[in-house]
Specification:
This protein is mostly helical. Helices cover 40% and strands 4% of the residues. The radius of gyration is 29 Å and the shape is elongated. The chain starts with 5 loop residues before the first helix and ends in a 9-residue tail after the last strand.
Amino acid sequence: MPGITREEVAHLARLARLELADEELEHFAGQLDDIIGAVARVAEVADRDVPPTSHPLPLTNVMRADEVRPSLTPEQALSGAPAQEQQRFKVPQILGED
């Protein structure tokens, strides 16, 4: 597989509106060539017998069951609030919304 050339990197930089120095063009050409080589190796490993997956391991829900337990009353929860309204914390208005 031919490597990425300086001219191709310069073209990509122009498309992205990036200004790169000559030494950066050489440096990025090598890095992009390595990345494309790594992707090609991964593509070689993938086989038609391997089903597509979103995660390598089966996922299970790790949340606990929702159980009713004793908690604070609204009055207790709001007792330290600097301002409250209709049994809720009152905070300054943001974004100019009503």
